[in-house]
Amino acid sequence: DTGVSQDPRHKITKRGQNVTFRCDPISEHNRLYWYRQTLGQGPEFLTYFQNEAQLEKSRLLSDRFSAERPKGSFSTLEIQRTEQGDSAMYLCASSFALAGVETQYFGPGTRLLVL
Amino acid sequence: EDQVTQSPEALRLQEGESSSLNCSYTVSGLRGLFWYRQDPGKGPEFLFTLYSAGEEKEKERLKATLTKKESFLHITAPKPEDSATYLCAVQDLMNRDDKIIFGKGTRLHILP
Fold this sequence. Notes:
The structure holds two protein chains of two kinds. Chain A is mainly β. Helix content of chain A is 0%, strand content 49%. In chain A, 35% of the residues are buried. In chain B, a hairpin with a 7-residue loop joins strand 9 and strand 10 (100-102).
C-alpha cells in the first residue's frame, strides 16, 4: 500500500492557460474523490468516481473543470482557461466502498497558483 | 443543509497541557464522523472514524468521542509534534453522493 499520490505537487500558471492534475489512488480502492482547499478552510467536495463512472459533481465545478477516470484507476482533473480564483490546493482522496461508512484517504495535494 | 463547526479556531498550549477540541455538526442522519490531522502544505491524514453516539476511539495521546450533536478530540499531555490543524468531517446518510463535509479546522500549536 503506497498511499494516494498526486502529480505535480506544485503548479504555477498564467491566467488563461490550461492545467491538468493527476491522482493515483490506493490500488484496491473503487472510489476516487476530488476536493479543493483554500487557506484557512476545510476541503470542499468537487466530484467523485465509482470505478470509471463519475457519479456526482459539485456546483463549485464550473464548465471549465473536467475530470476523468478512464479505466477506473488513476484520475485527471483539468482546468481550462484558469482564473486567479482557481488558486488553491487540489486534493484527491480514495476509498473502498461496499456498504455503510467508508474512510477516505487523502493524497498530498497539488498546489495551484494562477498569476 | 449539513454543517460542521469547529472550535476554537486556534489553540496554543504548553507541552504537557491537556485540552479538547470541539466539533459541532448538523446532518439529517449521521453515517460517520471523521477526524483528520493536516500539516502545513500536506494532505489530511486520517485519524478516526466514529459511527454512533457514545463511541470512543484512542490513538496515542488522542481520544475522540461522539454525542448526537458534537464530537470532541481530547489531547492528553501533548508534545510539540502534535502541532497541526485538526479537521472534523461528517458523512450524511441522506446524501446520495457520499461526500464528506469538512469544518474549517482547529490550528493547534504546542509550545515546548
